[in-house]
Structures are given as structure tokens and as C-alpha cells.
Task: inverse folding
RNA sequence: GGAGAGAUGGCAGAGUGGUCGAAUGCGGUAGUCUUGAAAACUAUUGAGGGUCACACCUCCGGGGGUUCGAAUCCCUCUCUCUCCGCCA
């Protein structure tokens, strides 16, 4: 949620920025500012009525105490009118607040100045490319054939017990998955992140806090009986740990990492894009979340990009980094870098990480604040990134490392898998 | 699942209709003292709206009600705790 003060003081910049998302927000922002003005006007009126009625009540109290019951009763009559008035103004106030909130919540974050205008993924800017594109031997096949050949993952069993998009990992497939999770968690810890194991279901307030609600209502699994949502990413429970907190300056930056399964309904779209591990309803991901001082957030974003790149380099996966254009960025983000690994048998890039700075967009909803040098409270900035999402890393790993003799496990993973080959 | 108790500021914990945004203690901050630290003492210390700044307004789990007036009374929801049952 954008800050009202920002929209008030930087109206032009907000409209210009949102245009990069191909959104014409001029009217909405104008409406917001008008509603805000009306709201404040209304509040001034309401406050003065309340102040008057408070004063009368106090007077009645002291009249009773002084034994002047008759006079006190006379004054009671005066309050009736004020009461009606304050009720009316109060309702108006609620109405205005509600309308204002609805409009505010409908606006996505304003992109950072470095973000280019664009509507589609084609407009994303490649900012880096690392690693050699491997050439595979003649009999090389996509990962969905490899997982079957070596009995690593059963998509059929998943369909049987749950449905499409819920794979079952078996044998060395399961062990490789677990090894990757441990590898990522260890690396994140070395980079200063503290590990958490959060709940996998959250309440609606948490869904709202990080911006999944109301924007992406239909994309989450919702348990209506208990009104809980299956988390689409660890970002949701982890960031919400700090909801409604005022943090001491010296506590910042807060760096968290967590492994969780992620649940996404992802309705629509079939075919090769979603084949095998490419897109799932349940998948594993290790996430990193940062809660930082506003002055630090872009420095921290760069560090995160560096860190995620390092993970891929250690795994020996060729990747490229994209700075997303306005239209391809998530609703809540001000600047996002996507990491894509090269899937050698599918011969395509697969997104394995998305690293974003949300600035105050989430903290304004969640009221995550710090106490500044000035002793006042200010909104923190939040950032998060995948480090990393498992399925597509697994897909690329299997495909890129396949040989006639089997699949070679990268050096760095062997301490975690305790096997060197999948044969 | 059954029965009972409770939800107050960073924490603990008073407050049962007006003088309560809320005693007291702890914690935090600033100062005095000290070579420095500790201790002691003094002052200060909730959040939000509003204002140039004051004033003023709102908030004692959420929502609704009674009343001139509610942290305090009533209704309702949510959550927590204790005991019993069940259970990895």
C-alpha cells in the first residue's frame, strides 16, 4: 500500500512511475487525494463535536458532585443534538476511510527509477549472464524423462493421491531434494541469515500484510472451515512476524531464511510450460527476507543479488539475471531481479529466483516501524528473494549434468547427498 | 470435544461508571554522582489522527449496545490459560 504522504507530496512522480506498469493512475490518485481531504475535513468537524460533548459531560459530572442535580439534568438535553451529529459524522468518517482504503489497496507499488517501462517479459532487461551453456550428449532427454528413468520423482503417484502438480519424490530424488534444501539453508546462514521454521498456514491478516490479499485471493489455497490460507511462499509468514512491531534501530537489518513448501493454485495454462517440474501446485523453496532501514534497502538488494548468483555458481548452473520491466513486476515490488537457469534439454531459461525490494509497500500495510534517531517511528523497508526455489533448480541440475553413465552430482552437494552419481 | 478463568502501555500488574491515556514495579532514555563502570538519586518514557506549532480527537483483544459520561455495565465474536477427555 502506497503511503498517503507520498501520494500527496509526489503526485507527479507516482503517476509517472505507475505508467511504467502501463497503468494510468492519475484519476485514482486524484480520487484518493480528494477523499483524503474530505476525510480530514470530516474529522476536524467530528473532533470538535466530540470535544464539545466531552466538555459538557465533564461539567455534568461536576454538577452532580456539587449536588446540583437539576442543573445537570438540564444540560443533558443539550447533548442529544451533539450525539446525533457525532453519530452522523462518525458514519461518514467510516465511509470515507473505507473508500480511501479500497482505492489505496488497488494501486501497485511505484517502480524504482531504474525500472524500464514495459508490458511483457520481452521488455525485461538482461543485466548479467554467468556460466557456459553446456552441450549435451546425443541421447540427452528432458528432466521428466530422467526422473522416470532413474525413479526420482513420480508424477503419477502424485496424481493418484492428490492431483496434478503434486509430485512425489522418491529414493535419490527425495535425497537430492533434501540435500538442496540443506545446502541452501547452510549457505544462507553463512551469509548472515537466521533460520526459521514458520507455520505453513496463515490467517487473512498475514495474507493482507504482504499483499497477497486482496490482490491474489484466488491464487492461494483457502481452508474455509478455519479461514486459513496455505502459504504461497515463506515470505508471507516470515515478513508478518514483524507486523505491528516497532523495532529498535540497532536490531536492523533483520535477516531471516526459511525453508517451506509453497502452495499455489495457478489456475490455467497447460502444455510444455508446465510439464514436469516447470510449474507445480506444491513446491519447495528456501526464502530469504530482510527488514531494513530505508537508507540501506538498495544496498541490501544488491547483496541479495550477489548472494543468489553465488548459489547458482556453486551449483555450476548457467544463469542470467533480468531486471524486470514495470509490467512484469509483482504488485508489491519496486524493483525486482529475476534469476533464470538454463535448462539444457528443454533449451530454455527457467526462473528460479525473484529478488525484490518492496520499500514501504508492505510495511505500510503491516505497520513495521523502527524508532529513528529522532525518536519518532518510521516505516522499515522489506526485501525478499528465493534462495532458491527447488523444482527448476532440480530440473536444470538433472538435465545439464546428465551423461551416458548417469547424472553427476555437483561437488558442493556431495556432502549433503552422500552419493556422487545417480545411475 | 466438556468445564472454568482471563485478555489493560515494551514487560509485570492495579484499576468495577466521571477527577483514567490509565497507579505501582521492571525495562528504556537523559542527567547528577564517579577516573570509568555499577549502585543510588532526579527527570522523562504508549500508538495513531490533527496542527506551522499548540489545542483537540481516537485507541484498555475485535465488533455492537446501555449512559450526559464506559477500561469499568450488557450482548457478541476471536484468542489465551487451567482442569478433564482424546491423541503424534
Result:
Amino acid at each position: 500500500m502506497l503511503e498517503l504522504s507520498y501520494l500527496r507530496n509526489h503526485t507527479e512522480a507516482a503517476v509517472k512511475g505507475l505508467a511504467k506498469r502501463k497503468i494510468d493512475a492519475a484519476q485514482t490518485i486524484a480520487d484518493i487525494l480528494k477523499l483524503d481531504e474530505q476525510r480530514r475535513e470530516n474529522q476536524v468537524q467530528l473532533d470538535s463535536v466530540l470535544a464539545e460533548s466531552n466538555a459538557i459531560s465533564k461539567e455534568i459530572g461536576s454538577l452532580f458532585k456539587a449536588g446540583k442535580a437539576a442543573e445537570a439534568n438540564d444540560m443533558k438535553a443539550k447533548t442529544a443534538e451533539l450525539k446525533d451529529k457525532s453519530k452522523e459524522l462518525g458514519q461518514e468518517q467510516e465511509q470515507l476511510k473505507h473508500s480511501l482504503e479500497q482505492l489505496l489497496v488497488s494501486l501497485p507499488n511505484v517502480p524504482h527509477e531504474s525500472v524500464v517501462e514495459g508490458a511483457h517479459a520481452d521488455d525485461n532487461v538482461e543485466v548479467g549472464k554467468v556460466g557456459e551453456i553446456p552441450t549435451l550428449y546425443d541421447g540427452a532427454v528432458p528432466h521428466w524423462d530422467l526422473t522416470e528413468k532413474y525413479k526420482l520423482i513420480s508424477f503419477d503417484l502424485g496424481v493418484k493421491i492428490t492431483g496434478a502438480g503434486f509430485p512425489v519424490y522418491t529414493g535419490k530424488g527425495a535425497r537430492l531434494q533434501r540435500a538442496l534444501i540443506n545446502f541452501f539453508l547452510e549457505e544462507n546462514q553463512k551469509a548472515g541469515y537466521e533460520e526459521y521454521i514458520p507455520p505453513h498456514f496463515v490467517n487473512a491478516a498475514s495474507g493482507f500484510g504482504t499483499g497477497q490479499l486482496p490482490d491474489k485471493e484466488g491464487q492461494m489455497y483457502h481452508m474455509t472451515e478455519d479461514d486459513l490460507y496455505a502459504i504461497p511462499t515463506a515470505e508471507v509468514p516470515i515478513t508478518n512476524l514483524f507486523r505491528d512491531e516497532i523495532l529498535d534501530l540497532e536490531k536492523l537489518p533483520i535477516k531471516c531464511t526459511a525453508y517451506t513448501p509453497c502452495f499455489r493454485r495457478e489456475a490455467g495454462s497447460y502444455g510444455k510450460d508446465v510439464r514436469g517440474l516447470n510449474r507445480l501446485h506444491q513446491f519447495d523453496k528456501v526464502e530469504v527476507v530482510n527488514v531494513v532501514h530505508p537508507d540501506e534497502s538498495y544496498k541490501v538488494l544488491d547483496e541479495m543479488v550477489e548472494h543468489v548468483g553465488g548459489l547458482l555458481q556453486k551449483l555450476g548452473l548457467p544463469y542470467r539475471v533480468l531486471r524486470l520491466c514495470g509490467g512484469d513486476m509483482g504488485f508489491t515490488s519496486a524493483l525486482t531481479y529475476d534469476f533464470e537457469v538454463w535448462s539444457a534439454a528443454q533449451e530454455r531459461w527457467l526462473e528460479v529466483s525473484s529478488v525484490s525490494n518492496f520499500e514501504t509497500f508492505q510495511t505500510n500495510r503491516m505497520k513495521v516501524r523502527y524508532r529513528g534517531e529522532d525518536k519518532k517511528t518510521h516505516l522499515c523497508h522489506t526485501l525478499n528473494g528465493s534462495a532458491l526455489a527447488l523444482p527448476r533448480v532440480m530440473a536444470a541440475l538433472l538435465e545439464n549434468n546428465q551423461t551416458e553413465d548417469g547424472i553427476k552430482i555437483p561437488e558442493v552437494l556431495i556432502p549433503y547427498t552422500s552419493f556422487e552419481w545417480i545411475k
Summary: The longest helix of chain A spans residues 26-65. Residues 217 and 275 of chain A are 25 Å apart (CA to CA). Residues 40, 43-44, 46-48, 50-51, 53-54, 56-62, 64-65, 72-73, 75-80, 82-83, 246, 248, 367, 375, 377 of chain A lie near RNA strand B (CB under 10 Å from a C1').
